[in-house]
C-alpha cells in the first residue's frame, strides 16, 4: 500500500538568505524540518526536491521575468541584491527558488501516480505573492500556481483548487486563477493588510473566493470563514486535486500579523480540506510552506498541519 504523506525539501532552501534581520530567514525552515523530524512525523519519507526547468516556470511566469531573473541570479553570485523592496537574494537563491518550485512538481507527480496520498513541500523562498512577471513579498516563483498549472496542462486534470490560509492574500496565485477557469483560488487573510489585494469585491468571479479577516478576529472568525464560505465554494467546485498554500503567520504569536489563531486551528482547517479532497479528488493534496515568522509557532503549526495530512 502507498505511504500516506511525503515531505519534499532541499538543502539549498536552507541557504537562501535575504540577509540579517529579514523575517523570512533560513532558521524558519530549520525550525520546520526539526519539528517534522520529531515523534511519528520523523518516520515520514523525505525526498530531495528536483530543480524546476524553464518549461516548468513558463507554466506561470513570463519569458521577460525568467530572463531578468537569470541575470539577477548571476549578479547575486557576487553580492546580495533586491528583486523588490522585500525580496532579497543571495548566492544560494537561484538553486533554492528552482528547488522550491520543483518540489511541488515532484510531489504532484508522486501523488498522481498513487505513490503517496498527499505531500508537504518544506521549501523557501515562499511563492504566493510572486506574479507572472515579477517577484514580490519574499516570493520569487509562484510554487503553488506552477504545481496547479502542471496538473492541468500535463496531467490533464480539469479542475485544480488552491486554498491559501496564509495570513496574507496570495495576489500572485489569484491572478493566475483569474486567467484560467480550470483553477479555483480561495484565501482567508487579514484585511486591510499587505499586499492590499483580496477584498471581497474580487470574489465575483466564479473561481475566486476571498474572505477578509479583521485584525484580532481570532479562531471563531476563521472557522466561520471556512464553514460558511470557503468549504461550500470548494465543495461546489469539486476539485480533482487540492493544493494548499500553508502559511502559519495567522498564529497569535506571529510578529507580522494579528489574526490570532491557535495551533489547533491549522489542524482543523487541514482536516476540513482533506474531507473535501477525499470526496472529489481521491484525497490528493500537495501543501506548500508559505509564511510564518515566529519560529516556535511556525514549527508547532507545521507539525499540526502535517500530522493531520499524515493522520498521525
Ligand atoms: Zn504570509
Features:
312 residues, alpha/beta, Arginase, Chain A, binds zinc ion
Task: Please write out the topology.
Blueprint: E1 3-9, H1 12-15, H2 26-35, E2 46-48, H3 54-57, H4 63-76, E3 81-84, E4 87-89, H5 93-112, E5 116-121, H6 143-153, E6 160-164, H7 171-178, E7 183-190, E8 208-213, H8 218-237, E9 241-246, H9 263-280, E10 285-289, H10 295-310
Parallel strand pairs: 1-2, 1-5, 5-10, 6-7, 6-9, 7-8, 9-10
Antiparallel strand pairs: 3-4
Helix pairs in contact: 2-10, 5-6, 8-9, 9-10
Zinc ion is lined by residues 166-168, 247, 249, 290-291.
When the domains are counted, the total is: 1
Broad structural category: alpha/beta
* Strand order of the biggest β-sheet: 2-1-5-10-9-6-7-8
Number of helical segments with 4 or more residues: 10
Shape: globular
Which range best describes the helical content: under 10%, 10-25%, 25-40%, 40-55%, 55-70% or over 70%?
Answer: 40-55%
CATH topology description: Arginase, Chain A
Whole-number mean pLDDT? 97
CA-based gyration radius: 17 Å
Instruction: Provide the CATH architecture.
Output: 3-Layer(aba) Sandwich
Proportion of residues in β-strands = 15-25%
Structure, described:
This protein has 312 residues and is of the alpha/beta class. The strands form 2 sheets. The protein has an 8-stranded parallel β-sheet, with helices on both faces. The longest helix is centred in the N-terminal third of the chain and has 20 residues. The protein is globular, with a radius of gyration of 17 Å. The structure holds zinc ion. The site of zinc ion has 7 residues, from loops. The site of zinc ion (ZN) has 7 residues, from loops.
Amino acid at each position: 500500500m502507498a505511504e500516506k504523506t511525503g515531505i519534499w525539501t532541499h538543502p539549498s532552501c536552507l541557504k537562501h538568505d535575504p540577509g540579517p534581520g529579514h523575517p523570512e530567514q533560513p532558521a524558519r525552515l530549520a525550525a520546520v524540518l526539526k519539528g517534522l523530524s520529531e515523534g511519528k512525523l520523523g518516520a515520514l519519507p523525505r525526498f530531495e526536491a528536483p530543480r524546476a526547468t524553464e518549461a516548468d516556470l513558463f507554466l506561470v511566469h513570463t519569458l521577460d521575468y525568467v530572463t531578468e531573473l537569470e541575470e539577477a541570479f548571476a549578479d547575486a553570485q557576487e553580492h546580495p541584491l533586491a528583486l523588490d523592496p522585500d525580496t532579497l537574494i543571495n548566492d544560494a537563491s537561484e538553486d533554492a527558488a528552482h528547488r522550491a518550485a520543483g518540489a511541488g512538481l515532484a510531489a504532484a507527480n508522486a501523488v498522481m501516480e498513487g505513490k503517496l496520498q498527499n505531500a508537504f513541500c518544506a521549501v523557501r523562498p515562499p511563492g504566493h505573492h510572486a506574479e507572472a512577471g515579477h517577484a514580490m513579498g519574499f516570493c520569487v516563483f509562484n510554487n503553488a500556481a506552477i504545481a496547479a498549472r502542471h496538473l492541468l496542462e500535463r496531467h490533464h486534470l480539469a479542475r485544480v483548487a488552491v486554498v491559501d490560509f496564509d495570513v496574507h492574500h496570495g495576489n500572485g496565485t489569484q491572478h493566475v486563477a483569474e486567467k484560467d477557469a480550470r483553477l479555483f483560488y480561495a484565501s482567508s487573510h487579514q484585511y486591510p493588510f499587505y499586499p492590499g489585494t483580496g477584498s471581497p469585491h474580487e470574489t465575483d468571479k466564479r473561481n475566486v473566493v476571498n474572505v477578509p479577516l479583521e485584525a484580532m478576529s481570532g479562531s471563531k472568525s476563521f472557522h466561520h470563514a471556512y464553514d460558511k464560505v470557503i468549504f461550500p465554494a470548494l465543495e461546489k467546485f469539486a476539485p480533482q486535486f487540492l493544493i494548499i498554500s500553508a502559511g502559519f503567520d495567522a498564529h497569535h504569536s506571529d510578529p507580522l500579523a494579528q489574526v490570532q489563531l491557535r495551533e489547533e486551528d491549522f489542524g482543523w482547517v487541514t482536516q476540513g480540506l482533506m474531507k473535501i479532497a477525499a470526496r472529489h479528488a481521491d484525497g490528493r493534496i500537495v501543501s506548500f510552506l508559505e509564511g510564518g515568522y515566529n519560529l516556535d509557532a511556525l514549527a508547532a503549526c507545521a507539525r499540526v498541519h502535517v500530522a493531520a495530512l499524515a493522520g498521525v
